[in-house]
C-alpha cells in the first residue's frame, strides 16, 4: 500500500479560491459571479484584484446562472460560486436550458457539498447534486479530493470549452496530492495498486479510502485505490482495467447512492463485466445538524465503513 | 428615413409564414407570433446593426434575445428573411431532424439563435450577461430582448431587473409584449398584473420605461430611436409594447385561445385571405 504524506490540512474551497485567483492573473476572459457568499467560497482575492471581472449577484442564484450564460456570448468564461445546494437543485431548469442545452461555457463552482457542511443541517447539505448534474447532456462533473487537486481542477476547467460542474467542500481535510500535478479532466488517478479489491472513491472519501487501504493491508488484503475526480465523463478504461484484475468493487462518496459515482460504476459494470459492488454512500436519506466528523460517522461514510464494505464485498467474490 | 411600406410588406409576409408554419406541423404558437411581427420586423430590418453571417459571440454588432421562445415561428421567419438561413427551411418547422425546433435552441446550430429559450423567465438574465460582456469588451453595440407579459410572472425576471439596475447595465433595451393574454386567460385575471402595473414596477426597480404601440411602425421606430438615445446613462431601458394577440386576423385578434393552437385548413385559408402575399411565400 503506497503511503502519502499529508502536506497540511486544508479546505478544498480554499483550493478553488486560490485557483480562481491564479486564473485572474493568467486569463483575462475569466469572470466570476457570486451569490452573497464571497467569504464562504473564498472568492475574496479574485474580487479584490480583479474587480472589473467580478459580479456580486446577491441572493438570486437563478439570475446568476442566466447572467453567466449570457457572459459566454461575448467570449467570457464565467465561474459561478455558491453552495452546492443553491448551485444545482435550486437552479436546475436554468442550468438545463441556459447552460447545458445551450452548451455554454459556464463553470458552476459549488462549495459546501455533502454532509460535511455540518451544523447548518439538511436544508443546506445537498447529497443529490452529482446525480442532478451528471444527468444533464453536455455537463462535465468533477469532485476533487483535496486542496491541491481542487486548485488544479479550477485552473484546468478554464481551458475546457463547455459546461462544467465543480464540486468541493467546507471542512479542512488532508492535502496530499502533488501541488504541481496537472489536472486532466476525465482521467482517473491510480493512487495505490492492489489485487484483491478496487476502491473507487471521489472527493472527501478519497483520503478515507487511502486510510482504509492501510488498515486492509494490515489484514493482508491488497486494495487498489483509484481517485475518480471526474465522475462524468467516467474514465471507463481505468475502471474496467482495475476490475478485470480484482473482480470486486467498493465505491465511496459523500453523496446519495442514487445518482452518484457508485451508480455510474454499477451501470458500466452491469453492461460490461457484472461484478460484486458495495457502495459507501448515503442511502436514501437527508442529513442533519452535527459536526462533519460526527455526521460522516453516523451516516457510515468514514474510514471503518470503507473497510467494512471491502470485507463484505470480498465474501461475495 | 424608414420605408414604412417596405416594413409592412415584410411583416405581412412574416405573418403568412407564421400561419403556414404552424399549420404545416399542426402545432406551435401563432397568437404571440402574429402580435409581435411588426416589432421584430422593425428590429431586424431597421433598428439593429446585425450581421446575418452569424457569429455566436456577436462582438461588434447588436444582439437580440427572445425570452418568450414559444413565438419561434416569428423568430425563425424574421431570421430567414434577414438572410440568416434559407427561407425554404421554414417548412421544416417542428418536424423531425429540423434545425427549427419547437422552441429556439443552439443545439441545432441554427444561425441567429444564441441561447435556448422556451422555459420562460430566463432570457432577461442572459441578455443582462451579454450586455455585461459587451461592457467589459468595450463594445458599444446594444443588447435587445423581447419577453412576454405572462412570462413576467416568473421570479427570475425580477432578480434580473434588480441586478441590471444595481449594476447600471445601460446598454440593454428590453421590450415586453403587453398583449394582456396568457394560456389560461387575461394576465389581469391570472396574476393581477396589467400594463400600468408593469411600468410602475419597472420604474420602482430603477429602469427607464417607455410605451409604444406594437402595431404602428412609425411609433416602433421612433420609440426605439428614443430608447437608443437613453442608453449609456446608467439605467437599463424597458419598453412596454401594446399589442393584440393574433393581430390582425379578425377571428384570432385579442383572444388567448390562439396562444398555442394551429389553424385548420379552412381557418388557414380564411386567415391568409386577410394577408395577401407581398414578397412571396416560402
List keywords for this structure.
heterodimer, A: 317 residues, alpha/beta, Rossmann fold, 2 domains, 7-stranded mixed β-sheet, 5-stranded mixed β-sheet, globular, B: 282 residues, 5-stranded parallel β-sheet, two-stranded antiparallel sheet, 7 strands, 12% strand
Overall mean pLDDT of chain B: 97
The name CATH uses for the topology of the largest domain in chain A is Rossmann fold
Percent of residues of chain B in helical segments?
40-55%
Which percent range fits the helix content of chain A? 25-40%
CATH superfamily caption of the largest domain in chain A: Thiamin diphosphate (ThDP)-binding fold, Pyr/PP domains
**Low-confidence segments of chain A:** none
Percent of residues in beta strands of chain A: 15-25%
The overall pLDDT of chain A, averaged over residues, is 98
The ordered string of helix (H) and strand (E) elements of chain A is: EHEHHEHEHHEHEHEEEEHEEHEHEHH
Q: Separation of termini of chain B?
A: 29 Å
The largest contact between protein chains, plus residue counts on each side, is: A-B, 31 and 39 residues
Strand content of chain B: 5-15%
CA-based gyration radius of chain B: 17 Å
The number of helical runs of chain A is 13
Q: H/E order of the elements of chain B? A: HHHEHHEHEEEHHEHEH
Q: What count of helical segments of chain B does DSSP give?
A: 10
Distance between the termini of chain A: 21 Å
Largest sheet of chain A: 7 strands, mixed
Amino acid at each position: 500500500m503506497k503511503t502519502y504524506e499529508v502536506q497540511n490540512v486544508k479546505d478544498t474551497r480554499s483550493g478553488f479560491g486560490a485557483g480562481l485567483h491564479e486564473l485572474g492573473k493568467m486569463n483575462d476572459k475569466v469572470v466570476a459571479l457570486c451569490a452573497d457568499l464571497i467569504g464562504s467560497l473564498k472568492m475574496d482575492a479574485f474580487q479584490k484584484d480583479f474587480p472589473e471581472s467580478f459580479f456580486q449577484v446577491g441572493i438570486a442564484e437563478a439570475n446568476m446562472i442566466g447572467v453567466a450564460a449570457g457572459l459566454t456570448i461575448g467570449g467570457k468564461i464565467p465561474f459561478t460560486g455558491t453552495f452546492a445546494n443553491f448551485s444545482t437543485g435550486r437552479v436546475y431548469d436554468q442550468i438545463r436550458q441556459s447552460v447545458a442545452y445551450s452548451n455554454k461555457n459556464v463553470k458552476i463552482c459549488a462549495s459546501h457539498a455533502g454532509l460535511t457542511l455540518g451544523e447548518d443541517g439538511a436544508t443546506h447539505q445537498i447529497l443529490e447534486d452529482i446525480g442532478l448534474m451528471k444527468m444533464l447532456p453536455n455537463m462535465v462533473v468533477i469532485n476533487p479530493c483535496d486542496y491541491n487537486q481542487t486548485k488544479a481542477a479550477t485552473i484546468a476547467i478554464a481551458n475546457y470549452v463547455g459546461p462544467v460542474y465543480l464540486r468541493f467542500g467546507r471542512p479542512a481535510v488532508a492535502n496530499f496530492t502533488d501541488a504541481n500535478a496537472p489536472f486532466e479532466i476525465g482521467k482517473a488517478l491510480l493512487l495505490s495498486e492492489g489485487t484483491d479489491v478496487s476502491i473507487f472513491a471521489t472527493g472527501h472519501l478519497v483520503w478515507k479510502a487511502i486510510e482504509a487501504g492501510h488498515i486492509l493491508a494490515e489484514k493482508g488484503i491488497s486494495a487498489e485505490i483509484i481517485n475518480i475526480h471526474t465522475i462524468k465523463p467516467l474514465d471507463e478504461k481505468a475502471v474496467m482495467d482495475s476490475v478485470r484484475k480484482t473482480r470486486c468493487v467498493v465505491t465511496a462518496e459523500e453523496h446519495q447512492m442514487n445518482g452518484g459515482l457508485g451508480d455510474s460504476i454499477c451501470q458500466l459494470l452491469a453492461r460490461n463485466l457484472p461484478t460484486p459492488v458495495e457502495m459507501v454512500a448515503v442511502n436514501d436519506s437527508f442529513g442533519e445538524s452535527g459536526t462533519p466528523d460526527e455526521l460522516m460517522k453516523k451516516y457510515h461514510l468514514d474510514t471503518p465503513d470503507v473497510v467494512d464494505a471491502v470485507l463484505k464485498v470480498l465474501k461475495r467474490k | 428615413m424608414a420605408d414604412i411600406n417596405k416594413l409592412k410588406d415584410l411583416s405581412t409576409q412574416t405573418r403568412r409564414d407564421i400561419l403556414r408554419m404552424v399549420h404545416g406541423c399542426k402545432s406551435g404558437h401563432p397568437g404571440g407570433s402574429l402580435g409581435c411581427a411588426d416589432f421584430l420586423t422593425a428590429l431586424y430590418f431597421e433598428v439593429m446593426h446585425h450581421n446575418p453571417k452569424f457569429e455566436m459571440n456577436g462582438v461588434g454588432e447588436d444582439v437580440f434575445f427572445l425570452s418568450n421562445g414559444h413565438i419561434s415561428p416569428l423568430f425563425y421567419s424574421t431570421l430567414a428573411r434577414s438572410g440568416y438561413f434559407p427561407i425554404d427551411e421554414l417548412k421544416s418547422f417542428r418536424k423531425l431532424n429540423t434545425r427549427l425546433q419547437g422552441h429556439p435552441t443552439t443545439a441545432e446550430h441554427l444561425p441567429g439563435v444564441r441561447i435556448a429559450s422556451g422555459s420562460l423567465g430566463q432570457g432577461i438574465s442572459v441578455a443582462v450577461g451579454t450586455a455585461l460582456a459587451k461592457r467589459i469588451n468595450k463594445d458599444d453595440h446594444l443588447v435587445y430582448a423581447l419577453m412576454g407579459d405572462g412570462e413576467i410572472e416568473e421570479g427570475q425576471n425580477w432578480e434580473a431587473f434588480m441586478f441590471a439596475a444595481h449594476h447600471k447595465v445601460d446598454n440593454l433595451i428590453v421590450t415586453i409584449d403587453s398583449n394582456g393574454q396568457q394560456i389560461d386567460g387575461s394576465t389581469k385575471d391570472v396574476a393581477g398584473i396589467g400594463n400600468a402595473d408593469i411600468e410602475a414596477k419597472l420604474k420602482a426597480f430603477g429602469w427607464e420605461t417607455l410605451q409604444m404601440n406594437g402595431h404602428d411602425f412609425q411609433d416602433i421606430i421612433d420609440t426605439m430611436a428614443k430608447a437608443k438615445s437613453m442608453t449609456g446613462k446608467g439605467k437599463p431601458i424597458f419598453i412596454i409594447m401594446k399589442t393584440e394577440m393574433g393581430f390582425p386576423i379578425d377571428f384570432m385578434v385579442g383572444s388567448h385561445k390562439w396562444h398555442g393552437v394551429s389553424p385548420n385548413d379552412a381557418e388557414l385559408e380564411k386567415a391568409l385571405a386577410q394577408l395577401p402575399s407581398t414578397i412571396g411565400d416560402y
